[in-house]
Predict the structure.
Amino acid sequence: MRTLIMILWMCFAAGAALAQKQTLSGVVHQLEQEGYEDIYVEIRHKEDIIRIRACGRDGNRQIVYEASTGTLLEDTVLENSSTPAARDDKIDFNKVD
């Protein structure tokens, strides 16, 4: 899994600043600390978004940021009951180290 993340980071490096990459790794690290597994990072340059999906015991979490600014666009969990729920404890892309 870490190999997949590293490959995605290399793709991301072409168009993003070094500080943003380190922040992205901070978000992934925080998700791992919260117990999430199978973390996938998807970068869509044309749509200017970064989508992070992770599986956890409470459900699947999806976090979407605007790539150019780091603005949080979405942070939801699809609970095991298949009902989407908004997250109260959102990860702020601009504040994660």
